[in-house]
Amino acid sequence: MAEDPKFHEEGERVHEYREPKVVKESIFTGSKALEKAPKIYGIPTGIEGLDDLFFIVESENGKIVKKSLGGIPAYSVFNITGVNDTGKSLMVEQFTVEQARKGHKVAFITVESPANFVIASIKMRAAAMGYNFDEFEDNVILIDAASHSTLRENIPDLLATLAYAIKTYHIKFTVIDSITGLFENREMMARGIVRRLFNFMKKWYQTALFVSQKRSGHEELTAEAAGGYAVGHIVDGTMVLAKELIDSSFKAKLYKKEIGEIVRLFRIDGCRMSGHDTRTHYLEITETGLVRILGPIGK
Questions:
Q1: pTM higher than 0.90 for the full model?
Q2: Which of 74, 112, 150, 227 is deepest in the core (most CB within 10 A)?
Q3: What is the DSSP string of 145-160?
Q4: Which of 174, 200, 184, 173 is CA-nearest to residue 146?
């Protein structure tokens, strides 16, 4: 076969040869690309202290001014990562409640727990936020990949199901909790899976939040997650959640806490679609189970 001019050898592999093809459909002038570019505006998240951490810059009277976006950028795809018990799922549940309460349909793909358990948790979050969940419960469209292995193990099936739900319910927001569950035991495939999910969200103009797990050995405040840096590298931005035990007088002084206490931290690690606060902030999980972003460390 290798003697056939249509094939060539590379090491032990044999590849079919074809002439390079120009893909003219991939070429745009700047103005043509802008015709299809969505207008960026803020999506309030329902998470106290988070929305003002994103901003845009505009020119006013010849000066560049910074203006709060009032939420995460519309059409962005964010990765929310951290170790266990840092508030990742609480954040996406609060986001889901906030959008559903405003009359938007939200796709919530649950990969870890069956849909009936997740919706009970979302209802509790709504109660803590002071809302009557009965009034908007059907704005949450759950896709149960935890109970259906074909969705968890087969990405084409998952995306076909999500596309059907988006068309049927006119969904604009998608949450996946967690994407780590879509490539557990096959982390070598993480990059490819995350890329397909990201491209899908862009194609369907979704504003999306992906939850991903950190391994215990990962540095607390890096964007690295299970699957390596693949997730953070591909998406529009990453929110890193961390918790730290106060086990030294140095930490006690730094965080103004007593030895033995836990301090929770939050940081936005990059955002392609808007400016953002780069400082590390304190994070609090309230007694009612809500996440709040507090002031930056040092203030």
A1: no
A2: 227
A3: TTT-HHHHH-HHHHHH
A4: 184
